[in-house]
Amino acid sequence: MSLEFFLFLLFVALGSWGAPPQAPPVPPPPPTPPTTVPQLPPKVSRHFTVKDYFVFVIVVDGLRPDALQRAQTPNLDRLWQSGLYSWTAQTVMPSTTLPAIASLLSGVPPERHHILWNHWAPELGRITVPTIFEIAQSQKISTVAFVSKRKLEHLFSPETPLFVLNSDARHLIVEAIEYISEHRPRLVFLHLSDVDDAGHRYGWMTIRQLQAVARVDEALGLLLHNLEDLNILNNSVIIVTADHGGHGRIHGTDDPRDMTIPWILWTPDIEIGRELMQPIRIYDTAATVLAALGLVIPSDWLGVPVLEAFPEATLQTLQKHY
């Protein structure tokens, strides 16, 4: 190897060692932010146009679905066998009367309506979210409520005709019939405590409680008979459900025996009884009531109307934005 060629190789090697490392590639510039913020899609308030119904919501406090299989209930049988029904409907937690009926009336769960107590406490005030009664009254629809526990006053505004009767189902129904025959309100709420009272005293699904279920059924038969005489029955939607079930002598837990309730809907337009396929939550009752009355269902409600009951219903949408 010549001296000149050796020096040339040495020069190349020394030049490579001293070369600076290559710089990393420069990232592309960030995208230019849009000049306008994209709009969220609108919420839709549902409005169903149906015929003018009378709507009856009947809560049998503490009624479990399996009690209807064991007690003598010919009138309730008449309703579900020619209506829509679910034996797996669910109430809310806590599975107690005030939180559950608050959800039934307001279309939202307890974390939204904030009725978490279960006793009469006037210092706690009344429910602060809209209920089916306030919505109906705002549209000049007449209402009335007959209840058998004073604590339910928390769920009604002073403008609602409310009768608190510490009595059995038959006496409460007799008083309600007298009012209905005179005033013919479009929305009627009836709360019957006999079954719950018997459950706490004797135990759920005992003979004594099943006898209470039978007595409530007799009282409902009296109601149906009088509605027929008043020419109201054939233009009515009747919903029968419960606020909770029970086990032993208690309720209020997430035990399925506490959480599972019956849900029955009857209208004269349903010819053959059938079980509902959609899951039913207690707050679906509120949405179904508003659909039956032809009123707008608030867009922020979790309750879903049971439209199988109204095959002729026409859906109209009102756009409401977030």
From TrEMBL:
Naturally occurring in which organism (per UniProt): Acetithermum autotrophicum
Classification of source organism: Bacteria, Candidatus Bipolaricaulota, Candidatus Acetithermum
Listed GO MF terms: hydrolase activity
Protein's UniProt name: Type I phosphodiesterase/nucleotide pyrophosphatase
Record's signal peptide: 1-18
Keyword terms of this UniProt record: Signal
Alphabetized CDD domains for the sequence: Enpp
Classification via Pfam families: Phosphodiest
